[in-house]
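Researcher: For the record, we're logging two predictions in this thread. I'll number them. Prediction 1 follows.
Model: Prediction 1, sequence and structure:
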Amino acid sequence: MATKTDKVGEGASVSRDDIESKLREIRGDVDELGESTRSVAGVVVVGVVVAVIALTYFLGKRKGKKKTTVVELRRV
């Protein structure tokens, strides 16, 4: 069975409608892939932001405990 590209090689012509329909088909596939990628990327970005905030919080909390000054008051 010959495909459209085989027919072109044999001297058949490709119309503007053929090209437009193929480009629409390709664009539909790309749009579907783009939508799924955007949703995954959004989840990843949110996860990274939450992880950075949590890490900053816990490191700051630890640093605050390490260098706490203790003041002792003695009555004479």
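Researcher: Logged. Prediction 2.
Model: Prediction 2, sequence and structure:
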Amino acid sequence: MALSVSLCSLTAVSFTPADEKPARSAEAKDQPKDEKVDGAPIPLNKNGTVLLDKKGNRVLLKTHVALRQGALEMLCCLKQTKEHESILSLDAKAYVVHTALLALDAKPGKPVHFDTEYHPPTGQKIDIFLNWTDENGKAHRAAARTWVRHAINRFRMVKLERLPAGLRLPKNTELRYDNKLKELSWYGPMAVQQKVEFLALSDDKAFQAMIESFFEQSQSREMEADWVFAGSQIYKDEETGKEHYLAEDGDLICVANFGTAMIDVASNSSSENSDLNFEAWTDRIPPKETPVTVELIPVTAPAEKDAPKAPPKKSPDSK
């Protein structure tokens, strides 16, 4: 049978008769040919871009590559929303994906919020994998974080009251000192040979530590943070009573923290355009428009019964 979802199904899942099955997606090559087969993924929307795989404990999203290079706010956005800062794009409603996760008993938490301090998004951990076929017909599967790296194409600055005595920075490099702001800065990736040359400019330990830091931060490193089912929020118009699921504005799977995110990274990640923490790892991403099937897999914590038991406490009278 096929599933039907609505805003109310963010807290409950409802079923519709089998003759109301969503239409199949023509481009989903690995979509089951017969949804009646026991255990086959069930399409949740008319174009078959969101499928519930109860047997595999996963939600499948039929997406395509929208961006290969640049700073990121999203791993995956909704169609025609944030493709300029998202690797993947999904033609579906966010609440359908939310409902599918609920159908797998995934527990939503809370999006990021700020009061006097930063509070990271919470919720059940979601493992995310990407599946695609290359131009030679070879199938691939990779953890989603391998397509996302810490931004290297950005400015990095550190306070420095003055340059070490006698130091003259070489011209025509990205290493600069701003005498007015009292800042040493670097832009982009730093090559090993550049680091060696900069370290040779001065024996000053503070200056050398800054060069080492610039070098380390400018190297390609995968995103380490986990994704969590934050669950976004529902806004209710007081005048009309109409409800709006805020993730519908595009914030489906984020790598920058948003209070409207459905799935977000469980770490402090700036959403300011001038200071985005992550960027697309271009060399690892297939060409634009490549179909990609995203797997969302809720991670269940080990049962308490499987946890090691603490030794019993001795009573005061025991010897």
